[in-house]
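for the recovery benchmark. tokens below, seq after
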């Protein structure tokens, strides 16, 4: 690993270009605020989804119902992050319908931005795999991944609520 880093530095240089350095510095100035919003929003969204009648299961270590919640509390004292996953009742069709109905949650494959992103792995990222391969990887047909952004959490929840119908 260290050899790879040295090789990268040898080929590309050990410092950032000025513009990338400026972008990094600018982003770091608000990092704490953005992470606090991600953590707070994701926990609120996870709690909403866990109580929603159309939802089968929610995967978020910040929920008391998560099997490794106690471990997450010890390892993640600043919050549980902005990523969560959930499965609506009705499997693939229900998930596919829900992601098509969102208006605030943007259908996109990315992580960590300030915008809430929604992904249906079975029809997008892992569509090339067989059902058995997805099952082995723990990806159910109805699984939805959500990267919760920093928008007003009431808007995110309202969008998910109307999308789940």
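predicted aa per position
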């Amino acid at each position: 690993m260290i050899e790879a880093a040295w090789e990268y530095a040898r080929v590309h240089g050990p410092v950032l270009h000025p513009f990338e350095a400026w972008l990094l510095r600018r982003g770091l100035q608000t990092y704490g605020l953005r992470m606090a919003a991600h953590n707070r929003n994701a926990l609120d969204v996870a709690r909403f989804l866990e109580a929603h009648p159309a939802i089968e299961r929610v995967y978020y270590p910040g929920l008391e119902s998560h099997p490794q919640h106690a471990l997450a509390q010890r390892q993640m004292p600043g919050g549980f992050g902005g990523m969560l996953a959930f499965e609506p009742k009705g499997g693939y069709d229900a998930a596919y319908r829900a992601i098509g109905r969102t208006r605030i949650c943007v259908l996109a494959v990315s992580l960590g931005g300030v915008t809430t992103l929604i992904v249906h792995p079975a029809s997008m990222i892992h569509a090339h795999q067989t059902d058995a391969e997805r099952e082995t990887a723990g990806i159910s047909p109805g699984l939805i991944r959500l990267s919760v952004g920093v928008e007003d959490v009431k808007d995110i929840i309202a969008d998910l609520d109307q999308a789940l119908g």
